[in-house]
Amino acid sequence: MLRDLLIDKELFKELRLRALESEEGENSQEEVELLEKAVFNRLKKKRSVKKYKKLGVSKGDLKEIIQLADILGLDVIGGPSNYELAKDHQEWCTICGRCCRESESIFIHKDELNLLLTFNPDLENGIIRNKLYPEHFELKDIQPCKFMHPETNRCAIYDSRPQVCRSYPLVLIESDGKAKNIINLRSTCNYSVQLVLEKSMILFDEAIRRLKEKN
């Protein structure tokens, strides 16, 4: 019910299906469901449905709002973008190091190559052409990332790290010929969980506002 106040039902189904079938392979359906469960356990504590029971709000609405938060940028309703939210809440990162240990490739844009090598000249022999985008580059032999300290999980090239590392947990993909940031939906990443949770609370509050106006 609440989600239908924010987006057309058929449009949501189409966007959800496209997100789950993403050729990028960043977010498997199993991982998406695990993250949504993690967010749900937190959201029901932040936004009690009992308060709005007379308006017909249920726990099912919370789950639908979370599904929408996975795929919808809040900028479409006048809110902050995924990038703005992630940038403003870097404290959500617990420095667990999983993203650095499990990353299969560190993408380096052609325009940032010189900057990276200026501060890290020893990297020159460790950089190769990107397999999917030959005009760009990537670090070879990267899993786990050799620049992560095994005990502190800190990055040895943090100040000059590639943009793909700076943007995490957002992943830049191409959709309909346009580049956009999507959330890497990993239930083991507190940053990802907190980001979807924050979006869910904002969407929930907006839906409740519209519901009250409707009634």
User: SSE order in H/E notation?
Assistant: HHHHHEHEEHEEH
Q: Mean pLDDT, as a whole number?
A: 86
Shape from CA axes? Answer: elongated
Major β-sheet strand ordering = 1-3-2
Structural topology:
Layout: H1 9-20, H2 29-46, H3 59-71, H4 82-88, H5 98-102, E1 106-108, H6 113-119, E2 127-129, E3 137-139, H7 163-167, E4 170-175, E5 178-183, H8 190-214
Antiparallel strand pairs: 1-3, 2-3, 4-5
Helix pairs in contact: 2-3, 2-8, 3-8
Summary of the model, kept short:
This protein has helices spanning 9-20, 29-46, 59-71, 82-88, 98-102, 113-119, 163-167, 190-214; strands at 106-108, 127-129, 137-139, 170-175, 178-183. With 215 residues, the chain is mainly alpha-helical. It is elongated and about 65 Å long.
Characterize the structure shown.
The chain is mostly helical and 215 residues long. The protein folds into two domains: 126 residues, no CATH class; 75 residues, no CATH class. The chain is built from eight helices and five strands. Strands 1-3-2 form a three-stranded antiparallel beta sheet. The chain has a two-stranded antiparallel sheet with strand order 4-5. Helix 2 crosses helix 3, helix 2 packs across helix 8 and helix 3 packs across helix 8. The two termini are 13 Å apart.
